[in-house]
Amino acid sequence: MARQRRHVGYGLPLTLAIGLHLGLLVISVIRFPSADSEPPNQAIVQATLVRAETATDQAQQAQQQARAAAKAEQQRKETQAAEQAEAEAEAERQRRQEQEQAAQREQAREAAEQAEAEAERRAEQAAQQEAERQRQAEAEAEAERERQAEEEARKQREAEAEAERERQAEEEARKQREAEAEAERKRQAEEEARKQREAEAEAERKRQAEEEARQRAAEASQSSLDQAIAGESEAVANAQQAEEAANGFINLVRQAVEQAWAIPPNVSDGAAAEISVRLGPSGELFAASIGRSSGNSAFDRSALDAVETAAPFAELRELPASVQREYREFTLRFRPGDIR
Amino acid sequence: MNDAMSIPHLIINASGVVQAVMLLLLLGSLLSWVVIFQRSFVMRRARKAHRDFEDRFWSGVDLNELYRETPAEQETLGAEHIFRAGFREFNRLMPKTQSPQAILDGVQRSMRVAWSREEDRLNLHLVFLATVASSSPYIGLFGTVWGIMGSFQSLSMAQQATLGTVAPWIAEALIATAMGLFAAIPAVIFYNRLSSESSRLLGKYEDFAEEFHSILHRNLQGRGDNAAG
Fold first, then answer.
1. What is the C-alpha separation between A141 and A135, in angstroms, rounded?
2. In this predicted structure, what is the pLDDT of residue B183?
3. Does the N terminus or the C terminus of chain B have fewer Cβ atoms within 10 A?
4. Which residues, other chains included, contact A171 with Cβ-Cβ below 8 Å and sequence gap of 6+?
5. For residues B62 and B173, is the Cβ–Cβ distance under 8 A?
6. Which residues from A are below 8 Å from B1, CB to CB?
């Protein structure tokens, strides 16, 4: 007979048990998060403000939007026009500047030509004078020589030496004059260059000044645009604030009505009644009437009673004056929630 | 579903007492499953061994041979244990007394002892299973009550009590009950199953003991007749 080991150890059972628990844990961790979700947090009693915005309000909003759009359009056009004008002015200025520069260049060239011509004329004059003087000197020397030749041959060498000296001196003087003319020419050219530089610097200064002026103008227009935008956003913020206050008012009304509401027994879940409410300027109840009946008169009456009990809604006076009128007439919808 | 309502998050955020209860229940569940597995294996082997032994016993083999097959010092289980105890007693008493009644009384006593040991062996730890099955729902309930108590105490300090503020507390407290039931339900089921199986096996052992006893009685009857004749 085959002897089998009859004792069962605890190792395998322990392993199996731990494995089982771990498996269950893993399954619960993995699958539970995606299982059932919480039911949405519902208000116990749902009295909903149906019509808070009147038709005039909607029209006003539409008008406001249209106005804002028109304003934006206008602003855009203005800025476009301003930019265009600026661009034209810029072009004009550039054109003028170019003309000026061209004129200046022309003047400079003319001046340079004149100076050159002057220098040439002077050089010519100097040369002519020189030639005349030479001729005179030669004639004198001729006469002398003739006279001397007739008198004595002794003085001839002296006269010749004298003439030679004179000629040398003459030569020197001529050289000196030439050098002077050259220096004069140089100075004039320098003068010319300096003038041109000055003119250029002047043009540069002018251009910079114009640039600055243009920038200033652009900045001024930009800041005015910013101011306009800021004003616009402020208006929007004011409107939002008013809306928030109005929402707070709606919630207050809803809470007050909910608290005052005693739901009659045996009302079906789907029952819904609408009560039209009109308020006085300080929040007192002018009229509350059944806008749409639920079919259950007890339910309708309970809703009406709730509104009458909850009135007056003095919080209306805390609203901004601009929206007060729009919240003086609204409709409340009554629905029993999941409370029984 | 938000993370705050997931089960691990709830367990970690529970109060100390509730956590201790949960730990206790987890331990109970773990141990009860160990017992369940171990007992299941034991029962299956005992069933198989009993079937094998009965086949062998009723195959017409000589009882002396069957007895000598197994060394005396080796521990045997189940019906074989009963057979060996009875046969050993029978062999010991045979040379000492002539009275068949005395021999049969001795054999029956020793077989009853062996049967009682077998019963003890088979029912080992089943009481633990019964304890877990009956007590863990109460332990879990205690954890839940404690947790809800804590939740209401902390709720009294809150400004307004909505379902959202109460829900995590109650969910956390209810986990203890869930764990108690989680430990108790398998324990109950397997306790019933295992104890019924063990009693069925013990019944079979008892039947076998009676049959063996009748065989010995038949043999002794013949001997008594021979001695008388």
1. 10
2. 93
3. C
4. none
5. no
6. 33-38
Question: Between residues A33 and B26, which one has the greater pLDDT?
Answer: B26
Chain A residue with minimal CA distance to B167? A38
Angle at A262 between CA A268 and CA A271, to 5 degrees: 20
Terminal-to-terminal C-alpha distance of chain B: 93
Residue that is last in its domain, among A241, A261, A292: A241
8 A C-beta contact, residue A278 and residue A287? yes
Question: ipTM for the complex?
Answer: 0.76
Taking the Cβ of residue B71 and every Cβ of chain A, the question of whether any pair is shorter than 8 Å is answered with no
Q: Decide if B82 contacts B119 (C-beta within 8 A).
A: no
Count structural domains, chain A: 2
Same domain for A236 and A117, yes or no, is yes
pLDDT at B111: 92
- The residue ranking higher by pLDDT, B165 or A48, is B165
Contact A45, A302 (CB under 8 A): no
* Residue B7 domain flag: no
Q: Does A29 touch chain B (CB under 8 A)?
A: yes
- Residue that finishes a domain, picked among A186, A216, A241: A241
Do A178 and A137 reside in the same domain of the chain? yes
Q: Which domain does A120 fall in, by range?
A: 91-241
pLDDT band for position A33 (cuts 50, 70, 90): low
The answer to whether the CB atoms of A38 and B37 lie below 8 A apart is: no
Are the CB atoms for A192 and A111 separated by under 8 Å?
A: yes
Lowest mean pLDDT among A30-44, A65-79, B141-155, B178-192: A30-44
Clarify whether residues A204 and A96 are in a common domain: yes
Kindly give the pairing relationship between strand A273-279 and strand A329-336. Answer: antiparallel
In chain A, count H helices and then E strands. Answer: 5, 4
Which residues are CB-neighbours of A302 under 8 A, at least 6 positions away? A261, A262, A263, A264
The letter for the amino acid at A286 is F
State the nearest Cα–Cα gap between A221 and chain B, in angstroms: 54
CATH number, residue A329: 3.30.1150.10
Q: How far apart, in Å, are the Cα atoms of B100 and each of A94, B94, B224, B228?
A: 147, 9, 7, 12
Cα(B95)–Cα(B207) distance, integer angstroms: 27
| Same domain flag for A295 and A332 | yes
Closest listed residue to residue A6, CA positions, set B110, B79, B206: B79
Residue of A nearest to B168 (CA): A38
Domain span holding position B111: 18-228
Cβ separation B41–A14 shorter than 8 A: no
B72 touches chain A (CB under 8 A): no
| Residue of A1, A18, A37 to mutate when probing chain B, most B C-beta within 10 A | A1
The reply to whether A14 touches chain B by the CB within 8 Å rule is yes
A179, part of any domain? yes
